[in-house]
Amino acid sequence: MSDHLISIILPVYNQADHIGIIVQEYEAALTKVRQPYELILVVNNCRDRSLEVCQALAEQSSTIRVVHSQKGGWGLAVKLGLQAAQGDILCYTNSARTSPEDLTLMLLYAVVYPNVVIKANRKIRDSLERRIGSLLYNLECRTLFDLSYWDINGTPKVFPRYFERLLKLQCNDDLIDAEFNVICRQENYPMLEVPIFSTKRHGGRSTTNYGSAFKMYVGAFRLWRRMRGARQ
């Protein structure tokens, strides 16, 4: 896989105070991968100076590109990043929660196993409340979609460009990760889940709460109905 470009998509949401440090740490760590790469910063519906900070980073480094969306949504940001990506190996991740070491590890796996989806499987949660919420959501998705995977929302997620259906994701919200896993199941894309044990958050506050969790539980059922109808 030498000389194959890696595209790393980083959705950015109100991260002006720490996205610069994250990018700096990632660029230092990515030297260990020994592959050309691009960092695509997808700034979406930010109310702070994230866009200005990201544009300044892009001016300082030829490996950084910025995509700006006035609309929000984790899924939409991922989709816009995939559309802009030029790499042969594609990756997207939650930058606030992904350490440089974990990102490097996942990409090294992708280089060694170029025909496999590489996905993080987080083993530790911040609290008992989050562990229970995650368990319920994962059990729901496993039951509805006949999945064998754990940690549906776990990132980084890395895959080869020729897994074309993963370039046609439709969800604009947090359900995009469930859709990602379902497509892998439908298309028989082989997947390797890599255990991740870090829990450190770089900055900002999680947007997950009881309301958003309930929306995801309901959303998973709606996604099941939509995808079942599409295949009939």
Quick overview:
This protein is of the alpha/beta class. It contains seven helices and seven strands, in the order E-H-E-H-E-H-E-H-E-H-E-H-E-H.
Characterize the structure shown:
With 232 residues, this protein is an alpha/beta fold. It has a single domain (6-231), classed as Spore Coat Polysaccharide Biosynthesis Protein SpsA, Chain A, CATH 3.90.550. 42% of the residues lie in helices and 18% in strands. The protein has seven helices and seven strands; from the N terminus they run E-H-E-H-E-H-E-H-E-H-E-H-E-H. The protein has helices spanning 19-29, 50-60, 74-84, 100-112, 128-145, 176-187, 210-231; strands spanning 6-12, 37-44, 64-69, 89-92, 117-122, 157-160, 191-196. Strands 3-2-1-4-6-5-7 form a seven-stranded mixed sheet, sandwiched between helices. The longest helix has 22 residues, at 210-231. The protein is globular and about 45 Å long. The mean pLDDT is 91.
